[in-house]
């Protein structure tokens, strides 16, 4: 009997993704690990969900733009509780987050208000604690998952390189946290350079604030000049320039730089949104 792979995601907005994973795993490609996909249905109770997680050989968390149904007792979504159960059980954890810049998504599948804030906080936490991968389509998700499963269950198998994808951060206004972001929409004098090199110039106190939030995300100690370039480009919504600056300053590949910039963006967006919620600031 093959081991089980627990797929955790919100069920309706990511139905195609869940089906594609199940279909790919059922084909049993040569060299692929023998794993049976298990996933909870919308009607599955919390206790049964957590039991399924604990009995799995590995956990796969797929996150889109919906936080999902919330457990009344904990105030957390079912998918978040499944993730926490996987951690508690010591399972291998694979995390995939939708690339908001590349993935097509219907408006009805995008949370707003309190659920959106909860999802943003969860994604920020995941980016800081897990080796997050970003997917731009259901097929891209399956390809990344298959490679990662080979890494976990067949370490000697060759892995293909991750696909680089660009992301962007929206300009937001909220003082003091998001005041530096406001220039992208409301204070043109704060922006410098052409569209290709658009950035928002941070004052020393604002740079120090954002540095404290994101410096630990990088795999190596980052010089302040490089980190400031990355943050200023991100605050202006110029993700590719941020990745290029990181590539040059850290001496890493562009693909690795893009992955690190994505994680940084999640934390910056969450920081700004939480400050907005606390102060009542309006975008």
TrEMBL record:
Residues 6-86 form the DUF4062 domain. It holds the Pfam family DUF4062. InterPro entries: DUF4062. This is DUF4062 domain-containing protein.
């Amino acid at each position: 009997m093959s081991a089980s792979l627990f797929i955790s995601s919100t069920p309706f907005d990511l139905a195609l993704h869940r089906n594609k994973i199940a279909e790919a795993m059922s084909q049993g490609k040569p060299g692929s690990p023998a794993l049976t996909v298990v996933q909870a249905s919308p009607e599955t109770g919390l206790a049964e969900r957590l039991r399924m997680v604990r009995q799995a050989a590995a956990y796969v968390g797929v996150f889109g733009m919906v936080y999902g149904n919330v457990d009344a007792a904990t105030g957390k979504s079912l998918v978040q509780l499944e993730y926490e159960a996987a951690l508690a059980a010591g399972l291998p954890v694979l995390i995939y987050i939708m690339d908001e810049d590349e993935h097509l998504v219907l408006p009805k599948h995008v949370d707003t208000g309190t659920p959106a804030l909860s999802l943003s906080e969860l994604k920020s936490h995941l980016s800081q604690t897990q080796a997050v991968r970003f997917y731009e389509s259901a097929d891209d998700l399956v390809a990344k998952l298959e490679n990662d499963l080979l890494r976990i269950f067949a370490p000697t198998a060759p892995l293909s390189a991750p696909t680089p994808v660009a992301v962007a951060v929206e300009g937001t206004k909220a003082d003091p946290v998001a005041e530096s972001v406001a220039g992208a929409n409301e204070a043109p004098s704060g922006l410098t350079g052409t569209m290709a090199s658009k950035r928002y110039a941070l004052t020393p106190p604002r740079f120090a604030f954002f540095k404290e939030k994101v410096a630990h995300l990088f795999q190596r100690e980052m010089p302040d000049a490089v980190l400031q370039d990355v943050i200023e480009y991100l605050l202006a919504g110029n993700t590719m320039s941020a990745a290029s600056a990181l590539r040059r300053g850290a001496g890493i590949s562009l693909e690795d730089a893009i992955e690190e910039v994505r994680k940084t963006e999640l934390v910056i967006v969450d920081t700004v949104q939480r400050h907005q919620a606390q102060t009542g600031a309006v975008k």
